[in-house]
Amino acid sequence: MAMLEVKDLEVCYGVIRAVKGVSFSVEKGEVIALIGANGAGKTTILHTITGLLPAKSGSITFEGKELTKTPAHKIVSMGIAHVPEGRRVFQQLSVLENLRLGAYTRKDKAEIRSSLERVYARFPRLEERKNQIAGTLSGGEQQMLAMGRALMSNPRIILMDEPSMGLSPLLVSEIFDIIRVISEGGTTVLLVEQNAKKALSIANRAYVLETGSITLSGKASDLMHDPSVQKAYLGE
Q1: pLDDT digits (tens, 9 = 90+) for 83-97
Q2: pTM across the whole model
Q3: CA 47, 53, 54, 55 torsion: positive or negative?
Q4: Better-scored residue on pLDDT, 160 or 39
Q5: Which residues of 157-194 are buried (b: 16+ CB within 10 A; e: fewer)?
């Protein structure tokens, strides 16, 4: 059984069908990439998985449990973390306060402390700036904070929405290195990313979305060499 299974998912905004019968699966330990142009429905799918948007029809199961009728706050405590598009850190709070909020579903203080130490080991810059107000951090640091905050819930799967958006090429490489490390540490990753080249370079498998439907899927290394993917998304 797949860790996360999305079947025949339909999502609408009013009369607009944003997601049209999408099906895909994520196995434990994989990095799965959803790639596609702006407005293809990638973010909508993540929002529906985490309960921020209702599904019109279809099913989403995580470790065998149906998510489409589960409230968003319960989905977090099941082991699903979401790093939203545009980072969405709490601008007025300190770095440390943001990280602590990531652990709000957890009760064991000692385990929360050890998670915090792990986040600081992975993101030394966050420890250096732990008392700094999050809104004053650079874009790259805010992205690290959003990822660190998600890891504080000790997730089994982490959903990342456009982690490279608005970052310099150097920082994009750093963020993707961190995603690789998170995956190697045993956390499953579902990645939505417009930077198809970077996404395919670290994913095991990928799905190509066009206007709400999956048009291609396969091993990431195969898609990297697929002429239609190269032409549409890799600028080759």
Answers
A1: 888 778 888 899 999
A2: 0.89
A3: negative
A4: 160
A5: bbbbbbbbbebeeebbeebbebbeebbeeebbbbbbbb
Is residue 207 within 8 Å of 40, Cβ to Cβ? no
What are the beta bridge partners of residue 190? 32, 159
Per 3-state DSSP, the chain is made up of helix, strand and coil in percentages (nearest 5) of 40, 25, 35
Q: How far apart are CA 192 and CA 156, in angstroms?
A: 17
C-alpha–C-alpha distance, residues 232 and 4, integer Å:
28
Neighbours of 59 (CB within 10 A): 15
Placement of tokens 């196995």 in the chain: 27
- φ/ψ of 172, rounded to 5, equals -60, -45
Per-residue model confidence as pLDDT tens digits over 128-144: 989 989 989 888 889 88
Of 220, 232, 211, 206, which Cα lies nearest the Cα of 44? 211
Tokens of 193: 């990313």
